[in-house]
Write a structure and sequence with these properties.
By secondary structure, the protein is α+β, with helices and mostly antiparallel strands. It folds into two domains: 294 residues, FAD/NAD(P)-binding domain (3-Layer(bba) Sandwich); 157 residues, Flavocytochrome C3, Chain A, domain 1 (Alpha-Beta Complex), CATH 3.90.700. Helices cover 24% and strands 19% of the residues. The chain contains ten helices and 17 strands. Helix 1 packs parallel to helix 10 and helix 2 crosses helix 3.
Length: 478
């Protein structure tokens, strides 16, 4: 044990600069305008903003500041009862204030068309997506005296002999530095960008699941690792992640094809493998992605005929920037995709024969128009025979939006031990804090990141600048 030498002193250090980290940093400054704040951003300035920058940043709101009425029951139900009801109740209480604040920062939210042509609840989003959350917040932060350290990664939490977190060892291209802090907020995302941790927690074939966005590649589990090293407990389902079906040919963020319920999904054997339309799109796409992961080579294809183009707003459901594979006949499409000879022709013929051509099709709701072909999964809704060429298909893989398992926090955003004791000086917010089980409670991630980022920043600043802070008399060095 030896005394650590520090290269710089701050009151609050925020690790990560997405929605949670920026909300925490700005709130810490508001709590005490004289506070010395540092924000660590692993990315370069042109890609700053973490996972949030690249997301649609959908928010489960009924207006610009109010969560939908059944949010708590919906979210706990989605987790099959495993998620913390108290967390969601706190979220619902705190969202109105947090989103009033967000609007004051210049973020504009609207109820715009989404990638979900059918959905179970209303959603608001920033005009232009998540980049129009992080850039206004960065502009506000740059107008303060805060220090923003780009291309800098947190490596180790530094503690004193009492186990209080008193700083962070960081690394950039020049090496490591020790930064002293009165409190640290971890807001650096999950571990979807770390193949080793994905294999450890998610299991076989996890390497086939890329982060859905460029920002996710920087989420390498550092916050989780550092917190565990100082005694943090965990929460959330570690072997599961928020999945979306993605076009593997595209590099754009969220290159999704959410029109799949109006066509059919096939694997590399040319066979259907699931009910594409058992529920509304927003409640189905995650299971679609997970089912694709289980197919041979973890790839599938969404196949359509021209009738899908008549669905109003169809273009909003297509996120990929790469044209589909297109052919004048099913036989030709089969060959272009590279499927076994006769496989897709047979699958489509059997599917078509089981469709009710007289049933009234209604794209806007679960219409009950079904197809139950022998030897294939049933299709519960929107089952129209594929007859109008040209026919086209998009390849689909399972992509990782963020991981479910993370650090456990209390309602004051304090990181806690397995005995429920807060680790003094350590706070957490956003996707690196565990919450979700079984399935993602849709459009709550950015909402909770902003809301609990506010809580973490406020509580961290209060601790760092209060008389209750234990002096850092003896520090553990490495």
């Amino acid at each position: 044990m030896s005394e650590t030498q520090f290269d710089a002193d701050f009151d609050v250090i925020v690790v990560g600069a997405g929605a949670a980290g920026l909300s925490a940093a700005l709130t810490a400054i508001e709590t005490d305008p004289g506070a010395r704040i540092a924000v660590l951003e692993r990315g370069a300035p042109d890609i700053r903003g973490g996972n949030t920058r690249w997301s649609g940043a959908y928010l489960r709101l009924q207006d610009t500041t109010t969560p939908v009425a059944n949010l708590v029951d919906y979210a706990v139900g989605a987790s099959k009862g495993y998620a913390s009801r108290e967390y969601y109740e706190s979220l619902v209480r705190e969202v109105p204030e947090a989103f009033d604040w967000l609007h004051e920062q210049g973020v504009v939210l609207k109820n715009l068309p989404t990638i979900f042509l059918t959905q179970s609840a209303s959603r608001y989003q920033p005009v232009g997506g998540g980049v129009n959350i992080v850039e206004p917040l960065f502009e506000r932060l740059e107008a303060t005296d805060a220090t923003i350290l780009y291309e800098t990664a947190a490596e180790t939490l530094l503690t004193d002999t009492r186990g209080t977190v008193v700083g962070v060892r960081v690394r950039d291209e020049s090496g490591t530095r020790n930064l002293r802090a009165g409190a640290v907020v971890l807001a650096c995302g999950g571990f979807q960008g770390n193949r080793e941790l994905m294999a450890k927690y998610v299991g076989r074939n996890a390497y086939r699941v890329p982060p859905i966005s460029r920002g996710g590649a920087n989420n390498r589990g550092d916050g989780l690792r550092m917190a565990l090293e100082v005694g943090a407990a965990t929460e959330g389902q570690f072997d599961l992640f928020h999945a979306e079906p993605k076009d593997p040919r595209s590099d754009v963020a969220e290159a999704v094809v959410m029109s799949f319920p109006y066509g059919i999904l096939i694997n590399t054997a040319g066979e259907r493998f699931m009910d594409e339309s058992a529920k509304t799109v927003d409640l189905t796409y995650e299971s679609v992605a997970r089912n694709i992961l289980q197919q041979e080579d973890s790839i599938g294809y969404a196949v359509f005929d021209q009738q899908v183009r008549s669905v109003p707003g169809y273009e909003h459901a297509i996120g990929t920037d790469v044209d589909p594979i297109q052919a004048d006949s099913i036989l030709e499409l089969e060959a272009l995709i590279g499927l076994p000879p006769g496989s897709l022709v047979r699958t489509v013929a059997e599917f078509n024969a089981a469709c009710d051509t007289d049933a009234p099709f209604d794209w806007s709701r679960l219409d009950g128009v079904a197809s139950r072909p022998a030897g294939q999964p049933a299709k519960s809704n929107w089952a129209r025979a594929l007859t109008e060429g040209p026919f086209f298909a998009y390849p689909q893989i399972c992509a990782n939006v963020f991981t479910f398992g993370g650090v456990k926090t209390d309602l004051a955003a304090r990181v806690v031990t397995s005995d429920g004791h807060p680790i003094c000086g350590l706070y957490g917010a956003g996707e690196m804090t565990g919450l979700y089980y079984e399935a993602y409670a849709g459009s709550t991630s950015v909402m909770r990141s902003i809301t609990f980022g506010r809580i973490a920043g406020r509580e961290a600043a209060r601790l760092a600048l209060s008389d209750a802070r234990v002096p850092t008399d003896a520090l553990l060095g490495a």
